[in-house]
Amino acid sequence: MIELPTLGWQSIVILVVFGVSLLIATYCTYAERVIAAFLQDRVGPDRAGPFGLLQPLADAVKLFTKEEFFPAGANKALFILGPCLAMITALMSSAVIPFGNVIQFGNNVFNLQGIEVNIGMLWVFGIVSLGVYGVMIGGWASNNKFSLLGAIRAGSQNISYELAMGMSLIAVLMISGTLSLREITLQQSAAGEWHFWNIVKQPLGFIIFLVCAFAETNRTPFDLPECETELVGGYHTEYSSMKMGLYLFAEYVNVFVASAVMSVLYFGGFNFPFQYELRDWFVNNQGWALTSAQNLISVLGLLGLFAKIFGFIFFFMWVRWTLPRFRYDQLMRLGWTILIPLAIFNILLTGGLILGGIIK
Amino acid sequence: MQSLSNRAKKLEAKPMTLAERAYLPAIFQGLSITMRHFFRAATKRQVTVRYPDEVRPFSPIFRGLHVLKRDEQGRERCTACGLCAVACPAEAITMVAGERKKGEEGLYREEKYAVSYEINMLRCIFCGLCEEACPKAAVYLQPDKMAPPRFERDEFIYGKDRLVEPVDPQARSIRGIQLTPEQAAALAQRMAQPA
């Protein structure tokens, strides 16, 4: 029996996840511009390559060739560290997301997941809250009052919305009883009986989580850290060249990760309806082996998860070009006096329903 | 205070209903509006004119770049009478008149002709008064050509080299509109006939 070293396989998966995150973030910049254009009855980028598909390359070349600017009085080390941290933390959180079920070749079972840990959700949460350091350090090091204000806003906004986000998550964890993202995904389906996705059990929790995800990724209507009408450019006012690009990139990676987490937690992850029926049909009617049928289902599930993720990314952009920005006091009021009580109510409600045996 | 017109309407801020305070219905309304626009744009009913590829058609009475016309035998019509320069409110036109020499009958229609004829396109306001003033039907403003932007000021002074229309009937136009092959053939036939 040939056994691939687990570390080797996992590092390949991690590299692929890394590359896919970057690729998706790259094309998010293109998608954002095209979607923005379409929502506003415009054309969008269509010059570079067919349908403008090479636009991200042109953008990258532009960003790399721009002047590297350091403001006077800036803390140079921290100034460079800021965008690096933003990018690193954004990319780290995608490691634990289960992108697909197992794929089996002979006796080798491969997980389509970077790292399977039993605290997956905590990992994502911890890394996401670290992400605010990139913004804070960048804003602080710029030696600019607008950058500093943007950084402070980012810090307070992220802390406020992490509370509501965490509490909406607790309700999910009460149902699943595990922090492992793979376990949570697998619980949302089972052969032979109806298993609903968590969105059916947690509609209120999902809405709270969605709103908080917008705030956590600094997307409109909660993009106050880079509110250009008040703060010039917020925390990245002083940034130019690829350091600026890294901040923008980190935002899109964060959007990708947030979409993936929402798909996994509430929309069944890599499960899709009638997957077991499809597998059994291949086994019974087409004479496939169980493993190859299961592999096919895994690949389809992988594509299904990405379809869900792209749907959420589209939703992020759709909302961005629809809603105006919140005022800062409105943002805080929404977070502290509406979302957090709602999340607590959701916990109580879920607990009551579990006790009553209505959901399990 | 008593309202003078008696039409003043007292408005009271109504308290928001729960649905309004929850934002979500209004958000979905906004999302549906933008989604309609998304599908309208995605199904290629955009209003954008992709300029270098597509050119928005000019109005048929658009007054663009000037042209000095030739007659049916390819002779310059302009006789340098100066009426266009007099009519010009922007004083953009200057010319130097000269006498036609023997043997130049095929070049100039009248005995007097413009040795030089210059229009300063930076001064010109494209009003078309020169076109109206011309007794010889020599100067016209073309409806499909514009004076393009340039880097140097002296490049905007258009001399006869850039104003007189080409001798070749294929490259000729009627009032600036490029001739169709049939029209060009008819013109060439007329030019071939002896005067």
Automatic annotation (TrEMBL), chain A:
TM spans (from-to): 12-30, 78-100, 120-142, 163-182, 194-215, 252-276, 296-319, 331-359
Keywords tagged on the record: Cell membrane, Membrane, NAD, Oxidoreductase, Quinone, Translocase, Transmembrane, Transmembrane helix, Ubiquinone
Gene Ontology CC entries for this record: plasma membrane
Main location: membrane
Pfam families to which the protein is assigned, alphabetical: NADHdh
Catalytic activity from the UniProt record: a quinone + NADH + 5 H(+)(in) = a quinol + NAD(+) + 4 H(+)(out)
A molecular function GO annotation: oxidoreductase activity, acting on NAD(P)H, quinone or similar compound as acceptor
Coiled-coil segments: none
Enzyme class, spelled out: translocase
UniProt membrane topology term: Multi-pass membrane protein
Enzyme Commission number(s) of this protein: 7.1.1.-
InterPro entries to which the protein is assigned, alphabetical: NADH_UbQ_OxRdtase_su1/FPO, NADH_UbQ_OxRdtase_su1_CS
PROSITE patterns, A to Z: COMPLEX1_ND1_1, COMPLEX1_ND1_2
Compartment(s) where it occurs, according to its Swiss-Prot or TrEMBL record: Cell membrane; Membrane
Gene Ontology annotations of biological process type: aerobic respiration
Quaternary organization: NDH-1 is composed of 14 different subunits. Subunits NuoA, H, J, K, L, M, N constitute the membrane sector of the complex.
Protein family per UniProt: Belongs to the complex I subunit 1 family.
PANTHER family listed in its UniProt record: NADH DEHYDROGENASE SUBUNIT 1, NADH-UBIQUINONE OXIDOREDUCTASE CHAIN 1
Protein's job: NDH-1 shuttles electrons from NADH, via FMN and iron-sulfur (Fe-S) centers, to quinones in the respiratory chain. The immediate electron acceptor for the enzyme in this species is believed to be ubiquinone. Couples the redox reaction to proton translocation (for every two electrons transferred, four hydrogen ions are translocated across the cytoplasmic membrane), and thus conserves the redox energy in a proton gradient. This subunit may bind ubiquinone.
Protein name: NADH-quinone oxidoreductase subunit H
Species name: Hymenobacter persicinus
Underlying gene: nuoH
Automatic annotation (TrEMBL), chain B:
Sorted UniProt keywords: 4Fe-4S, Cell membrane, Iron, Iron-sulfur, Membrane, Metal-binding, NAD, Quinone, Repeat, Translocase, Ubiquinone
EC number in record: 7.1.1.-
Entry binding sites for [4Fe-4S] cluster 1: C78, C81, C84, C134
Cofactor: [4Fe-4S] cluster
Entry's cofactor comment: Binds 2 [4Fe-4S] clusters per subunit.
Alphabetical list of InterPro entries matching this protein: 4Fe4S_Fe-S-bd (IPR017896), 4Fe4S_Fe_S_CS (IPR017900), NADH_quinone_OxRdtase_chainI (IPR010226)
Catalysis: reaction(s): a quinone + NADH + 5 H(+)(in) = a quinol + NAD(+) + 4 H(+)(out)
SUPFAM superfamilies in the cross-refs: 4Fe-4S ferredoxins
Listed HAMAP family: NDH1_NuoI
Quaternary structure, from the entry: NDH-1 is composed of 14 different subunits. Subunits NuoA, H, J, K, L, M, N constitute the membrane sector of the complex.
Protein name, UniProt field: NADH-quinone oxidoreductase subunit I
Organism taxonomic ancestry: Bacteria, Pseudomonadati, Bacteroidota, Cytophagia, Cytophagales
